[in-house]
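Dear colleagues,

As part of the handover before I leave the project, I'm documenting each prediction I ran so the next person doesn't have to rerun anything. This entry is a single chain, and its sequence is reproduced below.
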Amino acid sequence: MQFSFEIETGTKREGKKVIGIDTGINALASSSSGEQYGTEIKELIERVKRCKYGSKGQQKARRALKQRIDEIAIEVINSENPDLIVVEQLKNMGHKSKVKRLLTKNIRRSIGIWNWRYWLMRIEQQCEANRISFRTVSPYYTSQTCPTCGHVDRKNRNGIEFKCQSCGHTDNADVNAALNIMNRFILGKYGSQYKQDNLRSFT
């Protein structure tokens, strides 16, 4: 027999603090505020990959990875204290989608191991528990776009560094992507009410 229940968390917060979150391998969560969380996540992923598939060692490593993901989701909420969180809509990455074709085979394997679906589910659950609104936006070109001048170029990103080939704006590449994620929502149809308080670049 199975039971299910819902917890009444009340109405969503009415403040206007919006945070964009970029999900990655070097840092599980990079925030548009400039903070990064889970910078050790790559090491935990590699530990899973080194274990024999299906072994007790791998199961233990997977449990440790999921536990750390849970902790990071809580850490993001407590540290940022936002009213609304925006993430990339990374659905269908396991199929022949445009998003999948943009990623290398190794990166796709790593994403499968740390389970981005689980991470997004946990951050969304934390938002629900804390009455924080949760939204998604298109992921295209968030890592290649300059938030200062709007120039889009693959050369703008070089590893973990972002440097605009047009205006020279520099930043951590993942933080820069998070800023673009936030700005994309704010400039969209449903985000205009947040524009005055949040739309910015790190110039």
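The two ends are 57 Å apart (CA to CA). The beta strands are 18-23, 29-31, 36-37, 84-88, 133-137, 157-158, 161-163, 170-172.

All the best with the project,
I.
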